[in-house]
Amino acid sequence: EVLLVESGGGLVQPGGSLRLSCGASGFIFANYAMVWVRQAPGKELEWVSTISPSGVTKGYADPVKGRFATSRDNAKNTVYLQMNSMKTGDTAMYYCTTTLGNREYRGQGTQVTVSS
What we know:
- The chain has strands at 3-7, 10-12, 18-25, 34-39, 46-51, 58-60, 68-73, 78-83, 92-100, 103-106, 110-114.
- By secondary structure, it is mainly beta.
- Strands 2, 4, 5, 6, 9, 10 and 11 form a seven-stranded mixed beta sheet that branches.
- The protein is globular and about 40 Å long.
- 28% of the residues are buried.
């Protein structure tokens, strides 16, 4: 069974930082790209970042470019999202996802709230 479990969310002030983690199981983690997406209240799901299976290639959405950084530890089956210089607009539920074959898997999400 494929399982993705996010953690690390919480309340942070504007300008602050958080580090999200996503633990994976049930598949060969090192073989698959991992994606972070987020969904703010009343808005559609938004792509945040992608990291290649090796971790060498990374991509970021324009709103987070230069502030967020994704990484992975294939020995620990874990992908991370380091979020710096956070803004109120970063408030959302954050999910990690991966696609195996033609099916997308997503964790339960972790809530991030940026507020003073």
